[in-house]
Amino acid sequence: QVQLQESGPGLVKPSQTLSLTCTVSGASINSGSHYWSWIRQPAGKGLECIGRIYSSGRTNYNPSLKSRVTISIDASRSQFSLQLSSVTAADTAVYYCASSGYDFWSGYYDYWGQGTLVTVSS
Amino acid sequence: EIVMTQSPVTLSVSLGERVTLSCRASQSVSSNLAWYQQKPGQAPRLLIYGASTRATGFPDRFSGSGSGTEFTLTVSSLQSEDFAVYYCQQYNNWLHTFGQGTNLEIK
Question: Min CA distance, A64 vs chain B (Å)?
């Protein structure tokens, strides 16, 4: 059973960089079987994919966020991370890490972290 | 970007009723369509994948159908634990995209 746990600051100032880490257990982060993803959800709104990373380090980003997003992986710690720069109040949301299969037909998100609320405010 | 449109936005139903939720894609996603259930304060939970395969832990009163651009999620007899928000998601193309959700509430 794959388990994911987000961690990071719950409050970030405008114009600064949001940094979150997801710790993976129950699966090898570099097994090659999964994509590791970040998804966010503003309060009362829907879900938005931010980006994903494969064990090789290959990434896919949401084009609308691409200029501000970096996702990285640290297999030695079984973690992957999100950095979102130049944040504004519009980036306030619950941030989830999640896993999906490597093959395109298994791109559904079968495991999720519990989510962490990040508020952008001065 | 593939736009996913769900209808209705809100559905008020009674216990024991049969309900059908709809999801439409702006272009074909084949059968690469998932449904999620989300309860307040919780992460979404995978319910259906491959348009019609039920995920582990969900009873057979939940069923999914469709392919291409039109999909449905049916709950045959609503139980109290089924009241939640349901999202569809396409994974045929990156960027994976979600519908805006259907809120299933008690009448």
Answer: 10
Partner-chain contact A100 B91, CB within 8 Å: yes
CA atoms of A110 and A108, how far apart (whole Å):
6
What DSSP line would sit under B26-72, residue for residue?
SS--TT-EEEEEE-TTS--EEEEETTTEEPTT--TTEEEEEETTEEE
Q: Are A116 and B45 in contact (CB under 8 A)?
A: no
Give CA–CA dist B49/B88, Å, rounded.
10
Sequence-ordered list of residues with C-beta below 8 angstroms from that of B81, at least 6 positions apart, any chain: none
> Which pLDDT value is given to residue A91?
98
> A109, B99: Cβ pair inside 8 Å?
no
pLDDT in tens, A54-93: 999 999 999 999 999 999 999 999 999 999 999 999 999 9
Nearest Cα neighbor of B51 from B63, B37, B65, B61 is B65
Given CB atoms, is B96 within the 8 Å cutoff of chain A? yes
A46 to chain B: closest CA residue: B100
Distance (Å, whole) CA A4 – CA A25 = 6
Check if B99 contacts A (Cβ < 8 Å).
Answer: yes
Residue A8: is its pLDDT beyond 90?
A: yes
Average the pLDDT over B18-31 and give the result. Answer: 97
Instruction: For residues A11 and A16, give the distance between their C-alpha atoms in angstroms, rounded to a whole number.
Output: 11
User: Does B44 contact chain A (CB < 8 Å)?
Assistant: yes
